[in-house]
Design brief:
By secondary structure, the chain is mainly β. It is built from no helices and eight strands. A four-stranded antiparallel sheet has the order 1-8-6-3, with no helix packed on it. The protein has a four-stranded antiparallel sheet with strand order 5-4-2-7, with no helix packed on it. Strand 4 and strand 5 form a beta hairpin. The N and C termini lie close together (about 10 Å).
Length: about 80
């Protein structure tokens, strides 16, 4: 099975945690399911959850917390379960 990429459908700002004082949603290397929230995309003060989209092990984040993102941009990679 090939590596899966998590792609943002929205432009905005990517956040790995709900608030500045919160823990990150998921650490690199963690097992995730398709519906595991890995971060948030903020657009004009509205937050949308970004899920893994497939089961596997979270390989790496390709953007940093607080980075601007564009639709279709790869946010993270997943190794097959």
């Amino acid at each position: 099975m090939a590596e899966h990429t998590v792609i943002t459908p929205l432009p905005g700002t990517f956040y790995r945690k709900a608030t500045p004082d919160s823990a990150v949603y998921v650490e690199e290397g963690a097992q995730v399911s398709a519906d595991t929230v890995i971060g948030l995309i903020e657009v004009m003060k509205q937050f949308s959850e970004l899920t893994a989209g497939a089961a596997g092990r979270l390989g790496a984040f390709l953007v940093e917390d607080g980075d601007p993102v564009e639709p279709g941009q790869v946010i993270a990679t997943l190794d097959p379960a």
